[in-house]
Amino acid sequence: MLRAIQGDLLANPSRGTVVPGLAGIRKARAENPARGKAKRGGFRYMYYFLGVRRRNLFAAPLRQRSAEGLNERQKAALRAVVAELKGT
For the whole model, what pTM was predicted? Predict the structure, then answer.
């Protein structure tokens, strides 16, 4: 699973859609070749891209609909992670 996500992000680090209220964190999908599923039946994940020069990524796999179901405490925790990654 992590290799699929890594390959997906290396191919296009700005893929997916920005999740509102999460400081630039994006959500995307990756294929699941082990199950023979395309992106729609594959993995979902959230990630933050730090920039081309730094080439660092923060990624977390998700269950279906997890991005929509985050509560305010979880959102605040993710925003704090992004702030720390940015060094602010």
Answer: 0.71
